[in-house]
Amino acid sequence: MILRLNTDIAAGALGLVFGALLWFPKGDIGRLSIIFPRAILLILALISIALVVKGFIKPSGRQIEITGSPRRLLTVMIGFFVWWGVVEILGFLLTTLIAFFALTWYLSRVETAVTWQRMLKWTPIIVALVGIFYLTFTEVLNVRLPSGIFF
Asked: pTM for the whole thing?
């Protein structure tokens, strides 16, 4: 699919929408813990506004080619929003493990049929990735991740 659009306005609008969605925290976050994320969101908003203004002052239309299936892209995007909604219920570890397995299966089946043996081969890699994310956030960055009904 080939689109012709002003990428400055599109990127700026997307940045503003993304920043607006993340402005309101989902859980109990302390005043000091929210300072850095809010500062980053303000910087994102300023850059996005600058992009929108540039897009109107000096428009530059570009052709954007989206390769692959638009249905697959939309499915993965919806999957990330489902993950974001379910992470509060099931917790970060379980939800992320399920999401990584589902994403790996869904994107791998484009090339060939995915067997259980093949998924079992990928299990250590998926578990290691989720474990690295978890340890990085909890131990290095000292960020509390959502703990759900299981962990």
From this structure: 0.62
